Amino acid sequence: MARKPESAEDAYLVAGCKPWSRRVYDEVLCKLPGRWRYVGSPEEFSQARLGEFAPRYIFFLHWSWKVPQEIVENFECVCFHMTDVPYGRGGSPLQNLIVRGHRETMLTALRMSADFDAGPVYLRQPLSLEGNAEEVYMRATELSAKMIERITREHPAPEPQHGEVVNFKRRKPEESEIGRPSSLQELHDFIRMLDAEGYPHAFLNYGGFRFEFTRAALYEGRIVADVRVTSTAETKGTDG
Fold this sequence. Notes:
The protein has helices at residues 19-27, 42-46, 50-53, 69-74, 93-99, 133-154, 184-192, 232-235, and strands at residues 11-16, 35-39, 57-62, 77-81, 87-90, 104-111, 121-128, 166-168, 202-206, 209-219, 222-231. By secondary structure, the chain is of the alpha/beta class. A six-stranded mixed beta sheet has the order 2-1-3-4-6-7. A three-stranded antiparallel beta sheet has the order 9-10-11. Strands 5-8 form a two-stranded parallel ribbon. Strand 9 (202-206) and strand 10 form a beta hairpin.
């Protein structure tokens, strides 16, 4: 059952650590009814004085740190996961989806719980996985903003997940090394799924150099991409 309509006095906290998260907050979310605040790091989060601000919801757009359990238990925390849970719980959902051949998915707004991505679901919306990783993340963030607006307006009650649980493992930086793709399409997908700011790009090590690939385009039986070349002596130890 839907809860009471939003109030102009309701407070909302948005947590995000990527530039596209801040952008959608500045352009869309902070202009919605209510009192809004943004935090971009664990330090800012710890200084937010949640008890005084008393957020109705805390929305996590793109957050790279574990949220303290006392926050999850005492506030209604909403995260956005790029799979149709319970399929695809866990880390690196975009990359895990693409390596499995998915071209589209569901963006799921769910209430955070003690177990990762296991909480009840508020909303699901279709999401295309075409384009490079950063384009997909930006598309997902824009869609998340629309879902946030609906949640703050309608206050839907989240419903438990149903179905077979399929867990994804968080990828490690060394897994960005290009292996033996079976086709140009597979290679193109591998490059584009890692092409986002702050992510370890697809790479090859050869002859004492590292070749990192971004901005890949597949057409007419070939891949055209930007390549950054560095000495492996300079990159040694950066994968940890």
